[in-house]
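Hello forum,

I keep getting stuck at the same step: I have a sequence, I want structure tokens, and every attempt I make locally crashes halfway through. Rather than fight my setup again tonight, could one of you with a working pipeline run this one for me? It's a single chain of 716 residues.
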Amino acid sequence: MTTGGYAGTGSFGTDSFWGAQPTAHRTRFALATAPEAERVELCLVGADGRQRTVDLARTGTGDGGYVRWETTVPDVRAGQLYGYRVHGPWEPARGLRFNPSKILQDPRALAVSGRNEWGQEMHAYRFGDPAAMDTSDSLGHSMLCVVVDHGEYDWEGDAPPRTPYNETVIYEAHLRGLTQLHPEVPEALRGTYAGAAHPAVVRHLAELGVTALELMPVHQFVNDGSLREKGLVNYWGYNTIGFFAPHSFYSSLGDRGQQIYEFKELVKAYHRAGIEVILDVVYNHTAEGNHLGPQLSFRGIDNAAYYHLVPGDEFHYTDYTGTGNSLNVGNPLALSLVIDSLRYWVTEMHVDGFRFDLATVLAREEGDVDMVSPFFELVAKDPVLSRVKLIAEPWDIGPGGYQVGNFPARWTAWNGRFRDCVRDFWRGEPGTLRELAMRITGSADLYQDDGRRPSASINFVTAHDGFTLRDLVSYNDKHNEANGEDNRDGESMNRSWNCGAEGPTDDPGVLELRARQQRNLLLTLVLAQGVPMISHGDELGRTQGGNNNAYCQDNGTTWIDWERADTELLDFTKRLVRLRADHPVFRRRRFFDGCAVDPADGDTLPDIVWLDADGTAMGPEDWDKDWARSLAAFLNGNAVPGTGRHGSGGDSDFLVILNAAANDVEYRIPGADFPSKWSTVLTTCAHHLVGETTAAGEDFVVPARSAVVLEAVARR
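Reply #2:
Ran it on my machine without issues. Output:
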């Protein structure tokens, strides 16, 4: 690993690099451009904002026809600000948008400083005439790159936790919103990498029992000019402009490379607690938008290589993402950028995996979805990337974009069908039992055929995009007026139920039902086969006031209000996650097969039995009854390896009963080969039932809209 520029898959020779590479007395610079580029100027910007320019020499060509430019500048050291001006034809109709008036960010920059000031200077075309070139200078209005020397950072023996997928519990969080209101985090550190690494925050996640922190985008991103005009910001960060650079505004120490040190400290702090760090990455588009967007980097360097352009109409961009452009990883230049970025974050920054936003874009070859595209082949063969967690958001908005269950075998994926089905079941929709059974047992219909395991399914009920858990049970409709789009933005079909009143209420019955519904949803999520993902603050009762698209709200709408935490819900969530951790029957490595576990040794029961209310096994006719709102499953502890509480091989046996009906349901505890005695270990309704016992043949009442977990306390 070099100390500055990153040597990666697109390099020429063993000592080649991209970006800026400082040594003791000089810095080397290298940039790849389109073959039509005629001249490249390196702009070294001083403290007074003035530039000194150095021409780069054209030194070679690479796969796909791109050109390599290099120079070495003496007496340039770490901390130096720089950018590029790329000369060439301005022919937007051919996809060529060179404009040397615009200072461009190095695609391989390891750190970025300053901020963008939106206006004519940041756009390569003249406002009102998109085909005409604008010649106003963007210097002084744009962010600049920073020469970085990683130096000898002391990782203090840091090692990746490498938690197996089936033992993983993911906590999705926004780095700023996680700590902006945390009373134990010093004010100067709130909303920063250092704040997220504060012992109080790490302790909360460790005590909660999560094993992986999934951070929403921390690659360098920019705010949209349109949002700034409304007094809003791009809070979520899905607007990347620097795929190697940690977002500078999350640093408490500065933006001249200090953000790298601070991010490393965060990773090290979580690894010490046994918690992995996963990054939500946005390799599907960039912050440059469509043909009316700003000229920040890629567009002015090699527009046709980095982006999908409309075939036959290269003036415009193909948009599979809803953001104005789509990154073209089918091109070798863009592909090497993405692969090198991923490797950099693993090898240099020690992250443990990635969640790929709109990952279907990465599979598009000339517009079509191809799951054996070069990107997936390179990742599968890479000795670094093939060992980390790879999570797909398996859709985009293009044709054939919904790809749940279709990603390569090494990958896991967000399971949107799990989310939709579990929401529907608990709000009382008819005809959900058959699909619910499939979803909570790992979604074998989606993942089993190609040899994958239940852990291929990343299960979730809520995420950053949509209602919080509390809002899911408090609102029937979205309330996004604060976003400035007259409530038109955001999903209208939320599969939510307000429990009888829209939004805030003092009705004790409604409040009790909402609390119970939150516990029902969490229990179903955490105890289902697969990998559960909890959205930040859901364990504390976080609300966004009904806003289901809070991407632009950097305020109390999105920040966790730690001082108003629902402590009862937090305690329940901790017990729930602990139950999963203690019992491998809830985190099996393989799908259920419905076969007798060990008939030769006397265990004639299958690994799972679906039970009717009378204690007998459900028949084919029971699955599709529209009036049915409850489901019970016997989980055979002998079907999993390990040691159960009774010292025998396997785990304890469990009965899990989910009742979404508006009435109590009476279940007959099964007899015959089943355990003879059971104890209630968890319930979402009446706390006093925990610890109470029931026996085979007895009737057990499951209250309306509640769930219960029973553990066998007597041998079969």
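DSSP finds 14 helices and 37 strands in the chain. If your local run keeps crashing, start a new thread with the error log.
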